[in-house]
Amino acid sequence: MNGSLNVGKLFGIPVKLHVTFLLAIPLFAWLIGRDVQMTARVIEGFFNLAAGVTGFLPRLSIDPSYLEPGFVPYLVGVVVALGLFLCVFIHELAHSLLARRHGIRIHSITLLILGGVSSIEDDLPEPRDELPMALAGPLTSLGLGILSAILAYLADAAVASRPLAGALVFILGYLGILNVMLFAFNLIPAFPMDGGRVLRAWLATRVPLARATKIAADIGKAFAVLMGLFGVLVVFNPILIIIAFFIYIGADQESMMVRYNVLLKDLRVSDVMAREVITVAPTTPLPDVIRMMYATKHLAFPVLDQGVLVGMVTLDDVHRTSEIDRDAKQVRDIMTRSVVTLPPDALLTDAFRLMTRQGIGRIPIVEGTTLAGIVTRTDILKVMELREI
To answer: What does pTM read for this prediction?
Structure first.
């Protein structure tokens, strides 16, 4: 993910921090620390409600003496925010470790301003594998919430200083409540959240995967619209609006990705590529290339030097060259030398993913050192349209 910093590996999985994470800590610290007294009362209320419902849990009382002076509320906010992101990381780690157990490769875990994301290989897991993978994160959050609550009760009982006990109960109780809320929120059947993935896994045992994904994605998008409207019209909460936006976009992208995988399944680039390819030499004058683009309506040409692919010259390369200098330039002066290539037996889905990730419209197909053909985004989209007939 662009804008991410590598911070190390855990269980062999790269861990990254997105730049937005650096904004999250002060933001959460401010949100948590701006009204400690009210938050303390809310935490007490939750724990005392649990005591009343169960009949055996003790009641808690938070002494806010250590929480109120000066900048202390915001320092406590930083501690709670860091604890929350640690719990979110453990949530994502649970997903990743279970996925790896099912033979799915994990690229990385990235922490963002609104939580974490596990980057797994693009091949979709089987429904029987996706169900436990999707449940692993929420159940981990529930376990962390219960553990935090137990530690809050222990701190209240074991620490003699009531102000210190109050500070510990505040931090641990807050983390307990947040993790239980994460558990409940993630189980909402709104794709692509964990609950939506559980729904898709269940539906995929009854209907084809593409249909199951579309149903789950439509439910997710409907939920996102309702959440966004609630965030705008009822409470005006920017965080709710942002979360709704990401849920909607995520559901749409996941649905499209599954559609591509289904429609392009088992196809190789050799099945689609154009075998007669117009090429240019490194010494071809740039004005000649521009005339070729007008004549052929092609916006890029492979560059061959003695039969070997050495680059691509594209319309973007032309645009980056000053009009004044174009008459004096040759292809080798402006061409892109680092060219993404694939062999003829590569999967068409891999070609499409490469185009999407790297923002390119075509990929030369090379067999050994010989240019065998070229496949374009337009070629792939046409095949998809035909396979939907």
So the answer is: 0.73
